[in-house]
Amino acid sequence: MSAPSWLEIDLDRLTGNVASIRALLGAPDRPRDGLRVGSGPALIAATIKADAYGIGIEPIARHLAPLVDWFAVYSPDQAIALAPLTRAVAILVYMPVETEGIPVALEAARVCGKRIHFTIHDRSDVGVFADIARRIGASVNVHVYLDTGMNRAGIRAEDLAPVIADVRASGSLRLLGVYTHFSSAETDGPITLEQARRFDEAVGPHVPDLAPDGHIHIANSAGLLRDGGLQRDLVRPGLLLWGYAIDAMADGSLLSRDSVLPILRWRSRIVHTRTVAAGSSVGYAGTERLARDSVLGIVPVGYGDGYPLALSGRAVVTFVNRPTLAARVLGRVNMDQLIVDLTGTGVARGDLVEIYSADVDAPNSLPRLADLAAAHCYELLCRLTPRIERRIVTFADQ
Ligand SMILES: Cc1ncc(COP(=O)(O)O)c(C=O)c1O
Questions:
Q1: pLDDT tens digits, residue range 347-362?
Q2: Would you list the domain boundaries of the chain?
Q3: How many Å lie between the centroid of ligand 1 and the Cα of residue 94?
Q4: Class of the 11-256 domain?
Q5: In CATH, what number does 264-397 get?
Q6: Long-range contacts: 347-351, Cβ < 8 Å, 24+?
Q7: Which atom of ligand 1 is nearest to the CA of 221?
Q8: For residues 292 and 343, is the Cβ–Cβ distance under 8 A?
Q9: Whose alpha carbon is nearest atom 2 of ligand 1?
Q10: pTM, full prediction
Q11: Residues near ligand 1 with C-beta < 6 Å?
């Protein structure tokens, strides 16, 4: 039975993207400057929160497990879901855990054992994790998250010393990391470097407080792509693994566009065509009126699959067997379908359609559609609902 639409995921491209990041981190001319605990190339913590950015945790985690050093997820329940997919890789949980969250964090500590690492965002979190350590009868790994300007969560610089003192005094918590997160690494070099400077100033005196196998980490995808010694002991890429972060870099990247490739494309078929006379309106609320006699096609994809309503009348789809053609989405995006303009194309019922292309130059590449929808790649990926079938393929073979 053929699904109305399906996501094709090329895991070989994922391997290639990790290899490119690895090569960058290990490059002999890479400055090992800034604060660090270790002296080797930075490790990779693959950020696979939110179901691996909506792509699907299972194939992604299984494939990445032998390729990366750590995983990072948002919440303890995501860590629980990830644990059986990977037996060895450490799992960092970004989320603050407050009292109501203790039962699931406790469960995550039991399921993941020593592999789980929690994040301290508030001085009172020390007590939360010490309590978990007491209840599992083992030490718990923690990282302290320092707020350097994002103003989202995390410890402020002036509170870092007492928090670290509390962690050390607990006797049951191991300080495995201190980290921060950049607010604007894609778009703003000076702000990013200023965040790193604030981080170094606050954390510098505490490096000896970290466990010998601890890590200083500050860089997400765009951070690690920037010059300026931001890679430290460990990097936490997400979007770059899927092949997208480079498009959003406002001012240059340490990796070239051809060394990191999109790992997914979204495909469907034309399921119906009809001819409609000039002057007719099309779709809900008649938002579009045809200027010519037109051939319209139905693609069985809509906002119920995660295709943005904001692309109504604006985006195009392309055709797998006719690479130079693009057909505009006419009128409103529906819950389950799109109407596309096939006039003069020769495209027929049953022809393969590309909703999101893996070709970065295509008019329906994810970054271009994200721009058109006033969204970003993260959001468009996370919108892809589970009802879209996931297929593992090799793009070169298609
Ligand atoms: C703390 C933290 N680190 C790393 C990442 C990965 O970010 P990116 O996908 O931009 O690489 C995220 C994602 O939001 C994050 O919240």
A1: 999 999 999 999 999 9
A2: 11-256, 264-397
A3: 9
A4: alpha beta
A5: 2.40.37.10
A6: 347/270, 347/273, 347/297, 347/319, 347/322, 348/270, 348/273, 349/270, 349/271, 349/272, 349/273, 349/297, 350/269, 350/270, 351/269, 351/270, 351/319, 351/320, 351/321, 351/322
A7: 11
A8: yes
A9: 181
A10: 0.96
A11: 47, 94, 181, 220-222, 236-240
